[in-house]
Amino acid sequence: MSPISFITGIFTAFFATTSLAAPQLGEIQTFKDWTVGCDNLGDCEAISLVPDEGRASFEEWDGRVSIIRTTGSDDIFKIRILFEAEDIDRYRMIIDGQLVDTGPIGQSDYPVEIVGTDATKVAKAMIHGNLLTMQGPAGTDITKISLAGSSAALRYIDQVQNRAHTTSALVARGSRIFQPVNSDMPRITVDRWEEATLVPETDTIVALAENSKCKDDRFGLIEDQAYPIGKRDDLYRALVLISCGSGAYNFSSTPYIGEYREDSAEGWTFAPAKFDRQPSWGGEGNQPLLINAGWDEEEQTLGSYGKGRGLGDCGNAENYIWDGDMFRMINASAMPECRGAYEWITIWRAEYRKLEQAAKPEE
């Protein structure tokens, strides 16, 4: 074996080994009218909620505030505010009657995005405040945000990112100098098979469904699906999603991997798809269950998106990549509180590369 081949082999083996650990998702905490969570790299986000007290009649809440802070040396810190910004060219931010910030309405997805030292100034005012009001240039109220719990949420970020008692902390400030830690992004090696088009016939899928654990739950909308996931030598594989019941806004399915060998009298054989971490709605130890499943045939990624209620302001979402043997989580987000936060918090991130890309030495 040549030295280059030997090095490439070591790199490929190391790359594959480092991706085998089961994902450990970040936690999400709720403090009064704010919820906060961090991903596996330590990047965090805090989001305002519809006030818990009297929320059924809280008609002045027409948007949300999200605070994002990364933990690495880049130390990105920004405050984003979402509301209907039609016919408004400037905003005024008022906290407990005091003008805290003002500026033009942005053209991005968020009308207001405050970064850097300006974001720090606003965050400190929020920590000591009770009510944040966004106004138009004529003084008309656009939205009102409860700040109850915002201090605890930002303190939580200080703790998770090891900023507590350092000069970079927002709430738990101290004199120590913050030493950022750049965590490595989990990397997944994908062994992509040759493209194929072979999938099980309809009668084969029906027979699979009739012998599955979903047999007694197949009511409402029933739509089984099958997708080719590759060929190697004389072996074909396919992903089969068996309908497993439906509700008003969630459609369940359980995934199987089918295998078919050319010139074999056995036909298609099936086994429940393997995951490095089970989709949240199925639960560990149970057969995988996907909600509102989505399959990207080109990238071979599988998604599950379960809404806690029809509005879509709470639930869980996970996306997985097929690595040639099992599904591995590449991202996950969640929002446990059904209180107006349509933007869910990221709690896991990973990246993936094809085997031939992973084997190339970095320049």
Share of residues in helices: 10-25%
Which regions contain 5 or more consecutive residues with pLDDT less than 50?
1-19
Number of helices: 5
Shape: elongated
Number of domains: 2
> What string gives the helices and strands in order?
HEEEEEEEEHEEHEHEEEEEEEEEEEH
β-strand percent reads 35-45%
Main pleated sheet: 6 strands, antiparallel
| Secondary-structure class | mainly beta
Q: Give the overall average pLDDT.
A: 88
Cα separation of the termini: 22 Å
The rounded Rg comes to 25 Å
**Sheet with most strands: strand arrangement:** 1-2-3-4-5-8
Number of strand elements: 22
Structural overview:
- The chain is mainly beta and 363 residues long.
- It has 2 domains: 28-160, Immunoglobulin-like (Sandwich), CATH 2.60.40; 192-358, no CATH class.
- Helix content is 14%, strand content 37%.
- The protein is built from 5 helices and 22 strands.
- It has helices at residues 3-17, 116-127, 150-160, 202-210, 355-358; strands at 28-31, 34-38, 44-48, 63-69, 77-83, 90-95, 98-104, 112-115, 131-135, 141-146, 187-190, 225-232, 235-246, 251-261, 269-272, 290-291, 294-296, 301-307, 315-322, 327-335, 345-349, 351-354.
- The strands form 5 sheets. It has a 6-stranded antiparallel β-sheet, with helices on one face. Strands 12, 13, 14, 15 and 16 form a 5-stranded antiparallel β-sheet that branches.
- Strand 17 (294-296) and strand 18 form a beta hairpin.
- The chain is elongated and about 80 Å long.
- The protein starts with a helix and ends in a 5-residue tail after the last helix.
- Residues 1-19 have low confidence and may be disordered.
